[in-house]
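Bench notes, afternoon.
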Amino acid sequence: MRTVGRTRRLLWRWRWRWRWRNNPLRRRDDIVEAWIVLAVWTVVALGGTLVGTVTARAADESFAELRAERHPVRAVLVESTQRAVATTEGVRDNRVRATVRWTASDGSRHTGRALVDSGGKAGSTVTIWFDDGGRLVAPPPTAAHSSAEAGLLGLSAALALSGLVYGAGRVARWRLDRRRVDEWGSEWDRVEPQWRRRTM
C-alpha cells in the first residue's frame, strides 16, 4: 500500500512539472504552453485580487463622498402618502414621491417633491436630503449597504479580469494545439512513406 501511495505522489509531481523537465519528448511549444499556464494563473490570482481590492476601495470611497455631500433636513408632509403595494415581481418599494415643506437655514420656507416613506399622514415630519448645491436628492446609501455594494463591485471586477485572462490563455493554448496537430501531420507525411515501404 505504501508503494502505491508513493508511486501516485511521484506520478502527480511528474505530471505537474513535466513541461519544465528536460526530456527528449519536450518540444518548444510545451515550454511556451507551460509559461502561458503559469502566467494565466498568476494574473488570475494576483491581478484578480488587486483589481477587486482597488475597485472595492474606489467604490467605497465614492459612496463615502456621496454620504458626505448629502445632508438631511426635517420637513413636513403637505399631503398624505399611500401605502406601497407589492410590484409584479413581489418587490415592495417603501418610498414614494410626495409634496413636502421645509425651512432653509436662512429662515425661508420652501415646498417641493421628495422621496419619503410611504404611508405617512399630512402634517407628519419626514427626513429629506439635499446635496451641496441645495438640490433635493435621494438619500445616500447606508454604510452597510455601501460596503456590500462595494464588495460586490470588487468581486465582479476580479471575476471579469480573471475571465478575460483565462479566455485569452485558452485561445493561446488552442492555437498551440492547432500548430502541434499541423506539425504532427507534416511529420507523418514525411515518415509514412518510409513505413509503407517496410510493410510492403
